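Hi R.,

As promised on Friday, here is the backbone we talked about, encoded as structure tokens. Could you run it through your design pipeline when you get a chance and send me back a sequence?
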């Protein structure tokens, strides 16, 4: 990422600016970038919304939310300077006139800038609207300059492989691939980006990073929250589409990829696509063997009643949507042959915790009388959130007169000490503003990731799971997910 301030005047157009993402993530991210002096000297944020509203009202609404969601404290001086850059613009997604008016607005900014400014379109809207928006953008030529105009699209990108291909085709009629920034916010997290630094910035780990030394890899993204207020979205989505197809597979790519020749975005994205292609596809008749789904039921968490998924507002009483998924993947390539990659994610789990565990193979022979089985496995644990650290677990001598061993940990926790670590959205927005595609998904990455989960998705959609709900809110998921790893003598760490 460039340390230089972006020079090019820029207009940022947010579709869905009155929505949840805008208030919780986008405006706080822009505000923090602004106070860190990372935004261009000349920039405007045009907030699009359907209803009539005034700039003043809208700015007040943003300010109230900044108090809750901004990483840095909101001070009156900085807010006064920032708010001048925000304009509310009434806009109907499906009316051509709205786009013609928007274009006039953008041209008036260009006049103020004294040049044609960059244009960054942020689509923070339901996927169904992407088609109509990109059609109007094309027709009214608002984003006609591939060198300066960019579009950011939120996940989910399509709902299966077919729809993702259709969406890619559709976008390609209006935009060049280099203009399209498909967001997966996990790629903006400090600890996820650090995997690249950790693996390829050191000489000591890479020689061990293969099937000869690594026995298994686990990736867990556990959430404490339930479906919250997103029932209609989540009922159609479920854990496989919401988390595994994107966030978990992207983490897996970072762990498993070959060393890129350089940090050039095409190079890094090529290496990730190689990983996705190498993941062994699970045939429909083997889905139950490799994948486990779950749905949380009601329970008491710390003595307080917690609703089951089917009791949440807006959820069908007989819903078949999975709120938990665990899968065992294999990668058919030289580096990872026969190493299981276990991934799991779930809502209403015991605690919020995302982490990667690299488990090394046991010693072939132990010098110590207890034998290798008495030695705890060497593990490298990369904590993504909320703790942000890297832990190396190994055996050491217990202090004392005899030669007894004990497991110990070496911890690197610099991130945890960094109160000022940027939020994922700050990093990603800055990258998009500076035109760096590395942390965004390319069309083939998204399609390949859908292909990886295709048979599981089809099987789960077409068969009801009679065991639902099959895990208690506040637990670590269904028992079958333990069986998935125990079959091979492993355990979730
Ligand atoms: C989103 C999912 O992409 O990621 C949500 O749609 C999930 O369901 C969220 O809660 C998790 O993100 P984070 O950054 O809180 O781990």
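Update: got your reply. Pasting your designed sequence below so it's all in one thread:
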């Amino acid at each position: 990422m460039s340390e230089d301030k972006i020079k090019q005047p820029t207009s940022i157009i947010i579709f869905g600016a009155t929505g949840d993402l805008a208030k919780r993530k986008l405006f706080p991210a822009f505000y923090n970038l602004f106070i860190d002096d990372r935004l261009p000297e000349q920039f405007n944020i045009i907030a699009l919304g359907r209803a009539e509203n005034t700039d003043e009202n809208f700015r007040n609404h943003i300010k109230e939310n900044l108090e809750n969601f901004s990483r840095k404290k909101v001070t009156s001086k900085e807010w006064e300077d920032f708010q001048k850059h925000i304009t509310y613009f009434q806009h109907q997604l499906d009316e051509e006139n709205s786009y013609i008016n928007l274009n006039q607005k953008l041209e008036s900014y260009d006049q103020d800038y004294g040049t044609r400014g960059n244009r960054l379109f942020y689509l923070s809207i339901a996927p169904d609207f992407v088609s109509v928006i990109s059609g109007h953008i094309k027709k009214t030529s608002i984003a006609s300059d591939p060198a300066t105009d960019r579009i950011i699209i939120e996940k989910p990108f399509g709902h299966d492989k077919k729809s993702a291909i259709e969406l890619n085709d559709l976008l390609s009629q209006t935009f060049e691939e280099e203009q399209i920034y498909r967001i997966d916010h996990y790629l903006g997290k400090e600890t996820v980006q650090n995997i690249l630094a950790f693996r390829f910035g050191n000489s000591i780990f890479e020689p061990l990073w293969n099937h000869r030394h690594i026995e298994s890899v686990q990736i867990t993204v556990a959430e404490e929250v339930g479906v919250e207020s997103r029932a209609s979205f989540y009922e159609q989505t479920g854990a496989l589409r919401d988390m595994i197809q994107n966030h978990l597979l992207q983490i897996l790519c970072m762990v498993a990829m070959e060393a890129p020749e350089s940090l050039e975005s095409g190079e890094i994205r090529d290496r990730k696509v190689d990983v996705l292609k190498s993941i062994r596809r699970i045939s429909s008749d083997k889905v139950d063997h490799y994948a486990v789904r779950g749905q949380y039921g009601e329970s008491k968490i710390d003595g307080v009643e917690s609703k089951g998924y089917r009791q949440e507002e807006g959820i069908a009483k007989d819903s078949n949507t999975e709120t938990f998924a665990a899968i065992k993947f294999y990668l058919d390539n030289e580096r990872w042959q026969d190493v299981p990659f276990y991934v799991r994610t779930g809502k209403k789990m015991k605690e919020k915790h995302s982490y990667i565990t690299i488990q090394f193979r046991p010693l072939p022979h132990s010098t110590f009388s207890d034998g290798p089985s008495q030695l705890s496995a060497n593990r490298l644990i990369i904590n993504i959130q909320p703790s942000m650290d890297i832990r190396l677990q190994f055996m050491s001598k217990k202090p004392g007169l005899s030669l007894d061993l004990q497991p110990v940990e070496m911890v690197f926790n610099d991130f945890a000490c960094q109160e000022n670590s940027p939020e994922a959205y700050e990093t990603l927005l800055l990258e998009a503003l500076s035109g760096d595609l590395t942390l965004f998904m390319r069309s083939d990455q998204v399609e390949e990731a859908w292909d990886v989960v295709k048979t599981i998705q089809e099987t789960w959609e077409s068969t009801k799971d009679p065991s639902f709900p099959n895990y208690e809110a506040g637990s670590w998921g269904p028992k079958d997910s333990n069986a998935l790893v125990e079959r091979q003598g492993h355990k979730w760490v």
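One thing I noticed while checking it: DSSP finds 15 helices and 18 strands in the chain.

Thanks again,
M.
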